[in-house]
Write a structure and sequence with these properties.
single chain, alpha+beta, three-stranded antiparallel sheet, globular
């Protein structure tokens, strides 16, 4: 297995140096790489030889850390590509391949037709530069690019162009996504550069595969619209085969029933270490927002309607760049939610980390379990293709708050089609009717069994029904 380390040889005690790296595998392989990264020696002293931070270091140059890990990942990718292609492991081949990965445009302009991976990289950069996609969608594209790189490496098709990627490749890539976890132990050197959740550890769901294929389909559609290709490989399939490739399956929806929601809200024996989690989760249930939007909220997001109803307004981060009108989401604050907002000011330490054994999601599970939210729900096991019955608290996460808000509010909504002027689903209803803040407030208070109230301009409650 190859090992990559910082190779620092200098007599200087202060100032900047350009970083060099060394890759070794056994006694036979030793390759050096001089990067373009400049670093202060004082910053470098906080890093281990392998580029990771030393223990107990909390203040460090974050940009340098990212640059070092990117360079290490690029070296590892270049090395493994050369091995997969049975290329001589020479210093010149190694540097050339690193240059190809870091500067695909330069390589393609001098070496011939642009590869699929290089064009995909350029697509991602264009989306990032012009702000066409949200940060989350850009991240999804990069994840797909990285997975596609591994697929083409294993398939020995790294030089594949956009025209050479066929419908057969789509299904092969789909199978690769679902079963890639089987390759990790067989080819550890390919995955050493990946971190944590990026390493596939279990069989992926067909929904995950479909999501990644939809991302790839959008890329090919862009090329088709720009007349760079005659026809997308997705459109070269029959409708039946395309539906099969992009097939998704969903489990039964999981949410808190009103009585379960109220049990958590009104619980009096919540341990001190879970009280902040309860506040955050209950407030998120009231807002129904994604956790990314929730983490960004401050008191500046609070407004008050003419009727004295406080509400939260924000632009959803996930979709604001793709929306044509940048319409704000407005959600009235129920009385219990207002109390939490005034007491916390949206400052929740528990929101700093959502994943991990001590993150927000893990604490939500502990909160649910403590409150006895153990109703059995269906959970499909992808590894065994069987449906299991598990306590609801084991599946709890930030998404449960959003699903709970949508479900409870939906069950109390006024049927806009009751007047009989339009059929169900008619778009005209959306043009002729819209719930204003006061209407939505009444609906939500009924749905969540909360009292109606009004506030003054300082958010003091001045009346309560």
């Amino acid at each position: 297995m190859e090992r990559i380390t910082l190779y620092i040889r200098t007599t200087k005690t202060a100032g900047k140096i350009k970083l060099r790296f060394r890759l070794t595998e056994g006694r036979e392989i030793q390759l050096f790489h001089k990067s373009q990264i400049e670093a202060e020696l004082s910053d470098l002293r906080k890093f281990n030889p392998d580029g990771t931070l030393k223990s107990r270091v909390s203040i460090y140059n974050e940009e340098l850390s990212k640059a070092v890990m990117k360079e290490v990942g690029t070296m590892r990718e270049a090395y493994n590509q050369l091995k997969a292609e049975n290329m001589p492991l020479t210093a010149q081949n190694f540097e050339t391949r690193i240059d190809m990965i870091l500067h695909p445009d330069k390589f393609n302009s001098s070496m011939g037709e642009e590869t699929l991976l290089a064009r995909f990289s350029r697509y991602i950069e264009t989306m990032r530069t012009y702000g066409t996609l949200s940060e989350g969608r850009i991240r999804d594209c990069q994840i797909v690019h990285d997975g596609l790189t591994r697929y083409l490496t294993f398939s020995k098709k790294l030089r594949c162009t956009v025209d050479e990627f066929t419908p057969v490749d789509i299904f092969s890539y789909r199978d690769f996504i679902i079963n890639e976890y089987k390759l990790v132990d067989k080819y550890p050197s390919i995955y050493n550069g990946l971190r944590g959740r990026a390493i596939p550890r279990k069989k992926m769901s067909i929904n995950t595969a479909a999501h990644k294929l939809h991302t790839l389909q959008a890329f090919f559609s862009e090329l088709e619209d720009n007349d760079e290709i005659v026809k997308s490989p997705f459109r070269r399939m029959t409708q039946k085969r395309r539906s099969e490739a992009l097939k998704q399956q969903y489990d039964d929806p999981i949410f808190l029933r009103q009585e379960e929601f109220l049990a958590i809200l009104n619980a009096r024996d919540i341990p001190e270490k879970l009280r902040e989690t309860r506040d955050a989760f209950m407030l998120q249930c009231a807002l129904g927002c994604r956790v990314g939007d929730f983490q960004r909220m401050t008191m500046d997001n609070i407004a008050i309607s003419e009727e004295g109803i406080p509400y939260v307004r924000y632009l959803p981060k996930k979709t604001m760049k793709s929306q044509s009108d940048r319409k704000e989401k407005k959600t009235p604050l129920m009385l219990y939610a207002l109390e939490i907002v005034k007491r916390t000011g949206f400052k929740f330490d528990v929101l700093r980390y959502t994943a991990g054994d001590s993150g927000y999601n893990a604490k939500i599970k502990k909160l649910m379990k403590h409150c006895g939210i153990d109703r059995l729900v269906n959970d499909f096991d992808e590894a065994t293709d069987t449906m299991k019955r598990v306590p609801l608290y084991t599946l709890a996460s930030t998404k449960l708050a959003r699903k709970t808000h949508v479900d409870i509010a939906n069950k109390a909504q006024i049927n806009m089609y009751a007047a009989g002027l339009h059929s169900i689903g008619s778009r005209a209803v959306g043009h002729y009717s819209a719930l204003e803040i006061k209407d939505l407030f009444v609906l939500m208070c009924v749905a969540f069994n909360q009292p109606q109230y009004r506030v003054d301009k300082y958010l003091n409650v001045i009346s309560e029904n």
